[in-house]
Structure formats: structure tokens, C-alpha cells
Specification:
The protein is α/β, with parallel strands linked by helices and 388 residues long. It has 13 helices and 14 strands. A hairpin with a 4-residue loop joins strand 1 and strand 2 (34-37). Helix 2 (57-70) runs antiparallel to helix 10 (280-295), helix 4 runs parallel beside helix 5 (135-144) and helix 11 (302-314) runs parallel beside helix 13 (373-386). The structure holds pyridoxal-5'-phosphate (PLP). Pyridoxal-5'-phosphate (PLP) is lined by residues 108-110, 113, 134, 136, 178, 182, 207, 209-210, 243, 245, 253. Residues 108-110, 113, 134, 136, 178, 182, 207, 209-210, 243, 245, 253 line the site of pyridoxal-5'-phosphate.
Length: 388
């Protein structure tokens, strides 16, 4: 009989040979955009803590206070005894901040996506996903057993074609996409997608894990004619997903939408029912972060400005979000460039298949409100020089 460890060791060797093995490396983040790795201080362009809130004194104080008041763990599922009072406070704050009726918190953004998709969709339905939609939406679609189609990235003609030919064969239809694409930093044409969904009686699920703006707003193609906000709110077949784990400096995920949607998810989403509630401190951190963003909305605009400074200096397409990809090509070349940048004091992770399509390995830069312009200038010069 083959030995499990031998089989796995062989698979690991194969991944090594293709420069596709992933190994967690120890490091700890500091206030600002710094990380300590192998005893060295690096400026990190690989954290999704876009606003530096994970080290904000008020946020840390909220974590300590919640732990002292409610203890360290939730103790059970939200539906058993895990529903400490901070849950309701954060759900209300998220709904107010995002301009929806209600919110439902999950254990992570990943769990929110698979929970919402499997709760809403069944075997007679159809899910149509953007080709670049995040793995958690693909996993949710597969778990739901729903017919699954994909449209070319941001290609409205292709989406419409699928809707025209396939929609009539299925009871319900859900279009899934991201508001800011996590590996490319570009934005989905949400207004157009929602308009198509309305025409073809489909629902839309938007994963806004990298969205920094307060309202789950839709970028208008024609800024002179913004569509009425009300048609884009979560009350009518639009499901907004977000994470507490990135810009909010904590851990967890959420769905924003109508009250009925939130109530329905709480009683049907398996990834909420069959897992323990989040620790009180984790919820308190997200709540403190939302309060800071409501008080200081200008903070959320900084990462895009920093990203645009970088793209201008490096001669790249202007950034559309805090995420900027520098496409390199082969996995090995991307890894090599990442190592060269590390030698210069910058942490810039290489992103390889299967996270991105083969031949599009890249450096993924995430800009933070905490980055100093002089670091961005030095990085832009290095990237321009090292690029193959
Ligand atoms: C990070 C990410 C998630 C997962 O969120 P977690 O809270 O880290 O589980 C989901 N979707 C997208 C697009 C992401 O980038």
C-alpha cells in the first residue's frame, strides 16, 4: 500500500520544481507599514490592513476592554450562546456605514461568501461568475451544487449572452463578482451588471473585500449622470459582502443587504450555524474601526492616492484602487523579483498560479494610508529598473 507521506512528499517536490510551493514565513507587523522578518525591518506592500487600523491605539484599547468585559472566546455558535452584545452593535454599525437595512456577520469573508451562496442557491438555479472572481465564490458555487457558468472578466456582452441563452432554463439566477478585484485592482462595472440583472431577473452578489469607500457605491461609467443611489442599495436582490479582516484590521466577514436577507442567512447559512461565534475582542476591533472611519472618512481615500503616486512614477496604468499588479509572467521570475525587492528592504509578495492564471505571475502591491511617499518613490524606481 502506498504510504501517504511518500505521496505527499512527491507532490511537494513537484510544486517546488515549478516554483509553486507556498510556505508561511514568520513575520510580525508593526505600526506604520512595517514588518519584521528574519530580524530585518521591511516596508510591507503586501498587507491588506489598508488604513493601518490594526495598530491604532483606540482599536487596540477596544480589544482589551472587550476581552476584560466578555472574556476571550465566544464559547459556542452564534445561535447557541455565542451571541455576545457586540454582535448587534457591529451589525447595526456596518449596515449604517454601508447604507443598507441590515447586516449579518460571519466568521470570515470566506465563510460569508460560501454561506450566503449556499443558503440562496439550489440545484435548479444558475450562478454566473466573473472569470476572475475570488476562490471563495467559486467554492460556494460548487458547494451549492448549482449550475455554474463564467463570463469573461468584466465583459458585459458575454454576461448578457449567457443570460439570454441560459436564464430561461433555471429558476433563480445569481451573478457574482468583486467590486475591486483582489489580484488586479480593477473595478467591476457594477451599474451595468445590476442593470443586466434587473432585465433578466437575476440577483447580484458583490464581494467588496477590498472596497474602502463607506457606501457600497457603484462606479458610474458616466460620472455626470450618477444613477440614483436607491437602485443600488442592498434592499432589492443585491447582496454586498465584505470582510472585517482587511481594512477594518480585525477578522471576520459580513453580508449587507435587506433585513429579510440578514434574518434568512442567520437561520440557514451553514457556515454561520455550524461554527463558533467570533471572539468579543475581534468584533470590538471592527466596531472601533468603523467608528474611526465614520469620524475620519478622508482616511479611506489615502490608499488610492498612494497607489496612484506609484503608478505615475512607475509608468503604469493609473491605479483604480489600493491594489496595483505588476505582471511579470513566469512564477520563477516573479519570485526572483520579489526576493530582489526584499534585499532592498521591501516586502512585495509574488502571486502565482493557481491564484492567478498561468503566465501572469505578478507582484501584487497593496497601498496603505500609512505608506510614506519617499518609500513609494524608491520602490517605483526599483520596480522600473528590475522589470524584465
Ligand atoms: C480576502 C478576500 C476574501 C476572504 O476574506 P477573509 O475575511 O480573509 O476570509 C474574500 N473575497 C475576496 C475578494 C478577498 O480578497
Amino acid at each position: 500500500m502506498p504510504v501517504l507521506d511518500d505521496i505527499l512528499a512527491g507532490r511537494l517536490q513537484q510544486l517546488d520544481a515549478q516554483a509553486l510551493r507556498r510556505v508561511p514565513r514568520e513575520g510580525w507587523r508593526q505600526a506604520g507599514a512595517e514588518i519584521i522578518r528574519d530580524g530585518r525591518r521591511l516596508v510591507s506592500f503586501s498587507c491588506n490592513d489598508y488604513l493601518g487600523l490594526s495598530h491604532h491605539p483606540e482599536v487596540i484599547a477596544a480589544a482589551v476592554e472587550a476581552t476584560q468585559t466578555y472574556g476571550t472566546g465566544a464559547g459556542a455558535s452564534r445561535l447557541v450562546t455565542g451571541e455576545h452584545p457586540l454582535y448587534a452593535a457591529l451589525e447595526q454599525a456596518l449596515a449604517d456605514w454601508k447604507g443598507t437595512e441590515a447586516a449579518c456577520i460571519f466568521g470570515s469573508g470566506y465563510l460569508a461568501n460560501i454561506g450566503a451562496i449556499t443558503a440562496l442557491m439550489g440545484k435548479d438555479d444558475m450562478i454566473i461568475a466573473d472569470r476572475l472572481a475570488h476562490a471563495c465564490m467559486i467554492d460556494g458555487a460548487q458547494l451549492s451544487g448549482t449550475i455554474f457558468k463564467r463570463f469573461a472578466h468584466n465583459d458585459m456582452a458575454h454576461l448578457e449572452k449567457i443570460l439570454l441563452s441560459e436564464r430561461k432554463h433555471h429558476t433563480h439566477c445569481l451573478i457574482v463578482t468583486e467590486s475591486v478585484f483582489s489580484m488586479d485592482g480593477d473595478r467591476a462595472p457594477l451599474e451595468d451588471i445590476i442593470a443586466l440583472a434587473r432585465t433578466h431577473e437575476a440577483w447580484v452578489l458583490v464581494d467588496g473585500a477590498h472596497e474602502l469607500s463607506a457606501r457600497h457605491s457603484c462606479e458610474s461609467r458616466n460620472p455626470a449622470q450618477p444613477s440614483p443611489d436607491s437602485s443600488l442599495r442592498g434592499n432589492d436582490g443585491v447582496i454586498w459582502i465584505g470582510t472585517l479582516s482587511k481594512a477594518l484590521g480585525s477578522y471576520g466577514g459580513y453580508v449587507c443587504g435587506s433585513r429579510v436577507l440578514a434574518d434568512y442567512l442567520k437561520t440557514t447559512a451553514r457556515s454561520l450555524i455550524y461554527t463558533t461565534g467570533l471572539p468579543p475582542a475581534v468584533i470590538a476591533v471592527a466596531l472601533a474601526s468603523v467608528k474611526i472611519l465614520v469620524k475620519e472618512p478622508e482616511r479611506a481615500a489615502l490608499p488610492l492616492k498612494k497607489a496612484q503616486l506609484f503608478t505615475a512614477l512607475a509608468g503604469l496604468q493609473p491605479a483604480q484602487s489600493a491594489i496595483v499588479p505588476v505582471i511579470i509572467g513566469e512564477a520563477e521570475a516573479a519570485l526572483c523579483m520579489s526576493q530582489q525587492l526584499e534585499a532592498e528592504g521591501f516586502l512585495v509578495s509574488a502571486i502565482r498560479p493557481p491564484t492567478v492564471p498561468p503566465g501572469t505571475s505578478r507582484l501584487r502591491l497593496a497601498f496603505s494610508a500609512m505608506h510614506r511617499d519617499e518609500d513609494i518613490e524608491r520602490l517605483a524606481a526599483l520596480v522600473s529598473r528590475l522589470q524584465p
